[in-house]
Amino acid sequence: MNIKDIRGKSVEELESELQKLKKESFNLRFQKAGGQLENTARVRFVRRSIARILTVINSKVEKV
Predict the structure, then answer these.
(1) Residue 61: which of 5, 15, 3 has the closest Cα?
(2) Over 90: is that where the pLDDT of 62 sits?
(3) pTM for this structure?
(4) How far is the C-alpha of 42 from the C-alpha of 50, rounded, in Å?
(5) CA distances, 61 to each of 12, 24, 55 (Å)
(6) Which of 14, 32, 57, 63 makes a 20 to 30 Å CA pair with 22?
């Protein structure tokens, strides 16, 4: 997900996207523990996407 896309969304949309990414992160951790994880780079991408979304949410909440 691109930072421009993230900044263009509302806080509600970002929170729903955040929930999806957290669920995916949870599932990826289980796959990693079970030795079934095929795309190891996805873990890093999801973790960074969560951080980006949280950063944008915090900056939008501070402005209001």
Answers:
(1) 15
(2) no
(3) 0.91
(4) 12
(5) 11, 25, 10
(6) 63
pLDDT at 64: 64
Question: Which residues, 6+ apart, have CB-to-CB distance to 25 below 8 Å?
Answer: 43, 46, 47, 50
Angle of helix 41-63 relative to helix 11-34, nearest 10 degrees, comes to 160
CATH numbers and ranges of domains, the chain: 3-63 (1.10.287.310)
* Lookup: tokens for 32: 């990693």
**What is the number of residues in the chain?**
64
Q: What is the Cα–Cα distance from 33 to 60, expressed in whole angstroms?
A: 36
